[in-house]
Amino acid sequence: MDMNLLARKIILTIAANKTVVNLVSKHGMKWGAARFVAGSTLAEAVQRVKELNSRGIDVTLDHLGESITSKEQAREAVEACLAILDAIHQEKLRANLSLKLTQIGLDIDYDFCLNNMREILERAQKYNNFVRIDMEDSDHCQITFDLFYTLLNEYGPERVGIVVQAYLYRTAGDVEELIKRKSTIRLCKGAYKEPAEVAYPSKKDVDANYLKLAKTYLRSGVYFGAATHDEKIIRELMEFVEKEGLRKEQFEFQMLYGIRRDLQEELVKKGWRMRVYVPYGKDWYPYFSRRLAERPANLFFILKNMLKP
Ligand code: FDA
């Protein structure tokens, strides 16, 4: 296993420790979580979306939350998703919605979760908007695909999409099937702690697989989101599009709120499509720990803030 993945495993293990959870949940916003999270309310997030839209950047809004264990919590999350779709419509934002299935009841009851998704997609249909299902850890991968394919058959690829992770061995097969079904995806590297039985243990292999999958999608002509901040991959994809005579409008780059803003601006200026994932809400802890694990250097930024009077 290489050092990057080892560091990620260590940070995610420490982040799951109860004492750490309590301490960081209490002070984390002040220590630096605010760099990655667009606020705790929808109104705050809408302001950030307006700023991004005014700079030529599209958005996907995410109400933070995952792994909930009661139907009440799941219903609250559904209401939050509906409120996002209403706000996007009312405020005329250039934005769509991303969500996690464990936030709307996947761990409680499959049919309950499926019906929650249907309710959200009905609202998206009313506004001609789009909902993307984030991909969680590998234990949830197959069930997420099962539920997604049911919805894809019912609502079509213009209404619902999924995320695939280049670190999983299975993704090449998934991509083949998704292209056959003309399904738009978000391609990311993958952010969870996964064993070598299911995921490439070396960053080099993950990066190579990412490029291979992105080029497969580009050649297919099916629209997709290349979600990465990896400059080397981004430059190679831009060259590939130009060399193969493909259209810039065939795909969009996607990045996370607060990460590589310089690169986001540069790509927009050069005429590439850019979408930023804007998370907001009170349950920011798991999202924040994954951002730290991706880049251990972020820990120094946190430590610096902790030491501020
Ligand atoms: P990599 O980790 O190699 O980083 C490349 C460079 O990007 C770094 O050198 C650094 O400059 C910068 N960078 C990356 N992460 C940073 C951070 N946290 N802080 C500061 N700089 C950073 N994952 C998942 O499992 N399921 C999902 O649904 C999603 N959804 C998603 C949406 C969008 C829009 C994005 C961009 C990413 C995701 N991810 C995700 C996360 C993804 O899997 C991955 O963990 C991160 O994007 C980091 O990987 P990179 O591709 O950026 O490359």
UniProtKB/TrEMBL annotation:
It catalyses: L-proline + a quinone = (S)-1-pyrroline-5-carboxylate + a quinol + H(+). It comes from the Bacteria. InterPro entries: FAD-linked_oxidoreductase-like, PRODH_bac_arc, Proline_DH_dom, Proline_oxidase. The keyword Nucleotidyltransferase does not apply. Keywords: FAD, Flavoprotein, Nucleotide-binding, Oxidoreductase, Proline metabolism. One of its GO terms (molecular function) is nucleotide binding. Its EC number is 1.5.5.2. It is an enzyme of class 1 (oxidoreductase). GO terms for biological process: L-proline catabolic process to L-glutamate. Pfam families: Pro_dh (PF01619). Coiled coil: none annotated. Binds 1 FAD per subunit. Substrate binds at residues 100, 290-291. Pathway: Amino-acid degradation; L-proline degradation into L-glutamate; L-glutamate from L-proline: step 1/2. Its cofactor is FAD. Residues 46-299 form the Proline dehydrogenase domain. FAD binds at residues 135, 165, 189-191, 203, 228-229. Gene3D superfamilies: 3.20.20.220. This is proline dehydrogenase. It comes from Carboxydocella sporoproducens DSM 16521.
